[in-house]
Amino acid sequence: MPGAAGLLGEVGDGPAAEALHHAGAEWIGYLTQLRDAVAATAADLHGVAGVYAGAELDARDLVRRSSRWAS
Amino acid sequence: MGVLDVAPGAWHRTAAAWAALAGELERAGSGLAGGTQALATAWPAGLGTAPAQRRVGDHVTAVRDAVTLVRRVAAALSSHAYALDTLRQLAQQDRSADELSSLGARVRELEERTGAALLANRPSRGARRARSPEEVAAWWRSLGWEGRERLLREQPRVVGRLDGVSADDRDRANRTVLAADIAALTAREAELAARLDRTRFGLPPLLAALVVSGALPLELELQDVRSRLAGLLAVRSALTGQPRALLLDIDPGSGGGDGRAVVALGDPDHAQHTAVFVPGLNSDLRDTPGNLSLVSRLWREADGMTFAGGDVCAVLWLGYDAPETLEALSYGPARAGGGELAPFLDGLGAAHDPTASHVTLVGHSYGSTVVAEAALRGGLAADDIVAVGSPGMHTDHAAALGLDPRHVWGGIAADDPVGGSLGELSFVHGEEPTDPAFGANRFVVDTRGHNDYWHAGSQSLRNQAAIVVGRYDLVGLVHGGLPSTGDSQAASSLGR
User: Fold this and answer.
1) Is B381 a residue whose pLDDT tops 70?
2) A24 in helix, strand or coil?
3) At residue B489, does pLDDT exceed 90?
4) Integer angstrom CA distances of residue A47 from A51, B25, B336, B385
5) Residues near A3 by Cβ (< 8 Å), separated by ≥ 6?
């Protein structure tokens, strides 16, 4: 996941640390799913670009933009 | 953990990591938004254009929502780190055992408060919703009386906001939550005020906040607590009128938001006609009595048009963080709100008795952009859309909202600045729905200004009420074409 390093921190114990680990783990899972969903959309649209050859250039631009985050 | 053992450095580094994540997500969201525009050019007439745009649009919305919440997490962590800095510095000075103990207590309070803020800003409720409202409704009915009572007693915060649970049960759960939150905030207010009195040494509050170490955070928290308490007390006071009000959602605004309140007048589970009113700019919980007053005028007018009476429900839906001033130029709050409004409507349908209700969404001002964002997601569980004093609906044509354009209605007063001097906002939020080019019906408005569309006895109010009960023949039009009056029943009986 982009930028995952350091999100959970070495912050010791206590209610805030516990909440950070709980919420952080949920965020990492959620953003990983979101990244996968964007990647799947990019792949679908890449397929569409092949079919609509005339519009390929612009569609490829979309794929490039989507893939940047998906990678 | 003792106050001398706290490690602010680790919290500062963690806050920086979350701030960096917010930045990365924001750049990703901008890239994806650019991609959406490219898609419209690349694939203008393909059969899959709309679904593809919707899917990419959903991704963009999800990323932008995530940016907002991740920023709040970063801010909570940063505040925590700076507060720990201060407390540790205080502890490192020559302190008595009592003073160290008092500082330790403040560390524990800080821990609890930061923990609550982090948990309040987990991924959006919509994204985390594991079951559809239909599945929730079936599950809730399957529990039996005893099971439902146990959950209402033990988990009112979960039950109260669960789309698909019956309105009566949500009301009971949310009233429990409301009473508990008012009690907790009242106690916290008294505690903070007493502590500030001890800290101030008799100085006026503002001066004390500036010159006495530790007074500023206390003063800021006291203001925040008082603001949230005022919001909840306003909601409680609004629940006492007639007709009977049901509290379908409540949140005091912990974690940086303005809070949520959803209140129904009438019976949303059995009404033949349901209006859902979405307020706009600057709305927060403290406005609940005023907003509910205009909703009750709409309810009375509409109910008076039905044969039996008692067939209408009108809901005040403040389920989103309404923007303030310049934030109104942003799509963000509308997209986040639309993402919450759509499943709420699904929940109304799922909890309704087997015959469907005819549902009308009424969006005022920026609230109409929230309604539009819910509609643009596709599959909106509503039969009519009414936009009053609207700055635009994020599309240039009514047909894009997924309804027959004859069921999309716009109204604007001649001297409403949103349609006049501020009409140039259209370049931000799209064509105004009252413009003939938008393709919606424009109904007659005889009220003045931006906030008086629900004036008792006005044609503005009568026209909206007639739409709510599907009496389209009673609606006075400036331009457009009326649907047939039987359309509302047909739409409802077909389950949309």
Assistant:
1) yes
2) helix
3) no
4) 7, 26, 30, 36
5) B17, B20, B21, B24, B25
Q: Does residue B136 register a pLDDT over 70?
A: yes
Pairing label, strands B384-388, B408-411: parallel
Cβ B43–A19 below 8 Å, yes or no? Answer: no
CA-based nearest distance B55→chain A, Å: 8
For an interface test with A, the pick among B18, B26, B36 (most A C-beta atoms closer than 10 Å) comes out as B18
Residue contact B115–A15, C-beta within 8 A? yes
CB-based contact, A25 to chain B, within 8 Å: no
Q: Please, what is the Cα angle at B313 between B239 and B257, to 5 degrees? A: 55
Instruction: Single out the residue of B386, B301, B380, B304 nearest to residue B342, CA to CA.
Output: B380
Predicted confidence (pLDDT) at residue B425 exceeds the cutoff of 80: no
Least confident of A26-35, B120-129, B183-192, B412-421: B120-129
Element housing A20 (H / E): helix A15-51
Q: Which amino acid is at B403?
A: L
User: Order of strands across the sheet with B358-364?
Assistant: B245-251, B260-265, B312-318, B273-278, B358-364, B384-388, B408-411, B441-443, B477-479
**Strands B273-278 and B245-251: what pairing?**
unpaired
Question: Mapped to the 3 state alphabet, what secondary structure does B268-336 carry?
Answer: CCCCCEEEEEECCCCCCHHHHHHHHHHHHHHHHHHHCCCCCCCCEEEEEEECCCCCCHHHHHCCHHHHH
Domains of chain B by residue range: 3-123, 132-227, 242-493
What confidence tens digit (pLDDT) does each residue in B272-298 have?
Answer: 999 999 998 778 888 888 899 999 999
The CA distance from B128 to B112, in Å, is 23
Q: What pLDDT shows up at residue A59?
A: 52
Q: What fold, for B242-493?
A: Rossmann fold (3.40.50)
Every domain of chain A and the residues it spans: 37-71
Q: Which two tokens stand for residue B314?
A: 């009108």
DSSP secondary structure string, B329-377? G-SHHHHHHHHHHHHHHHHHHHHS-SSPPEEEEEEETHHHHHHHHHHHT
Dist CA B223 CA B333 (whole Å): 24
Amino acid present at B306: T
Residues in chain A with CB shorter than 8 Å from the CB of B10 are 9-12
Q: In 10 A of CB B201, how many CB atoms?
A: 10
pLDDT above 90 (res B446): yes
